[in-house]
User: What shape does this take?
Amino acid sequence: MDWLFKFPFTSKLDLESIDRVIRDFSIQNKVFFDGIKSGLTAMINFLYMILAWFPWWVYLILVFILGYSIKRSWKTGLMFSAALFLIGYFGVWDLMLITLSIVLTSVFLSVVFGFPTGILMAFSNRIHSILRPILDTMQTMPVFVYLIPAVMFFGLGKAPAVLATTIYAIVPIIRLTNLGIRQVEEEVVEAAKAFGSTSIQTLIKVQIPQAKETILTGLNQTLMMAMAMVVTSSMIGAGGLGMEVLISVNRIEMGRGLVSGLAVVIVAILLDRLSQGLAKGKEKPE
Amino acid sequence: MQKKSFFVALFLSCALLFTGCSTENKSDKTVVFADAGWDSIQIHNAIAGYILEKGFDFTWSQVTGSTAITYQALIDGEIDVYMEVWTDNLAPYEDDVASGAFEEYGVNYDDNAQGYYVPRYVIEGDPARGIQALAPNLKTVADLKKYPHVFKDDENAGKGRIYGAIPGWEIDNILFKKYNHYGLDENFIYFRPGSEAALAGVLTSAYEKGEPIVGYYWEPTWLLAKYDFVLLEDEPYDEDTFQNGETEFPAVRVTIAARSDFDEDYPDAAAFLKKYKTDSALNSEMLLHMQDTGDDAIETSIWFLKQHTDLLDNWLTETQAQRVKTALESE
Assistant: This one.
């Protein structure tokens, strides 16, 4: 009767051979991975250089203006700048810039790869059914499972962090681009075609503009998810605000953890409100 | 019809529940160990757990969490026994022992080396693998200054990279001071690897690829038992200047601790745990066995106890030791 309550058979998989394959693969393709790594690193460093080139008050003014233009209220703008001011006041301004350079590079990569993928998915049901389980895996596979292979391939630092973040954050932009385009009404597309538009013209001039709001929501979600990976990517040495959180948690310093955690929250909220506001703000004149 | 099947389902799930209960262990003496996530603490848990189970009729379990979380749980009394407290890595440790937040039972081992390691092939080369000695005169930490081009950092052109300690560990501060003390900050980046898994990952992959690397690591670990790394020399240890990063590292005191009233509840078990002691070599031995055979912590602990039955005589009274040995024979 034992088999009724306990699963009757298990097999010991040859997990070591998987380890060996990954290890050998990383050794054989060292040049290839090193190339990707230096490319990514150059991108992140370039972005950081630009971000660090502007003095802090430029950001405060910029955030104020953006906040004002979104809500047409100087209170909102002031609140946003005050929040950003707090980050400098906490003494983590530089760390924020490092974090931003990693997050924004990941978002950039997500858009570059995710947007076309989403369009492909919208046009082919076959691709759609193949990609869906892959996207589910990317979103739910515990990050540490692929973090260590990423370390084997790319070493420690910002490049593997950007990669891990991109894998996680690219999903919403793909999903919502696909959804947005699929939701454009059939009649509208038919009409465009009836006037003699090619598929490409229909896509660029009708479908994408019609799906804009959904796609921008996807972009906003991608941004948020990239921010959510900040601490995780510090575990492979990415630096920035996440590292500060990690240090304080490991030292059981709750105050320090709270301050750096709060800085992450502020950056996330600002990015969220501003990107959402920009998405909506451009709709109004029409 | 629907109703009927619902009752059948209800009955079946009740039946399952009750059979579940009947297989519960009869013993009400339980001990909860801390599993802070690394291999050796899990093996020590399994060894102590096995002995408590066979020699003292305990049942045992582990609570898994990060070092910080499990340490807090020990103070709160949710965890009974912590087999490996790395005292150097926990800033509040001394104060907490002094204030009686928990009790220190003794030293598990304290003869472990730690510091900056480089693969042996970086210094001596490895003709079998076709690797040339890139830093033949590298002996001490101070010598590193001559070799930034060997250990180069991909993110910062022209500088070298030293892999430091896990952020937040006590040792991290000292390593950073050492980095400044030897003037390595001029041409090296002090890189915090973020987590143990990441540090182990980067050292392993560098070794497998035959690349030069220098990083902080510690013994006993399977990694240093398996791969041939050399510990870089430093000035002899001095208590006063060590904190400023000027000398080599002393061994870390790795202690066994238990919640504050554990010895009142179970004096026998506490007496055993207070005598429990291993050393760095024994730990390396079990970790290497685990890594090479793929055994889990429990299998490794039984293998280990079979190899070293003499330890049982040191830790236990004669009758207790005999009970455990009898149990071991039937494994």
Observations:
- The mean pLDDT of chain B is 86.
- Chain B touches chain A at residues 16, 19, 66-68, 71-72, 90-92, 154-155, 163, 166-169, 172, 191-195, 197-199, 201-202, 204-206, 208-209, 294 (CB under 8 Å).
- The radius of gyration of chain B is 24 Å.
- The first strand of chain B starts at residue 30 and ends at 35.
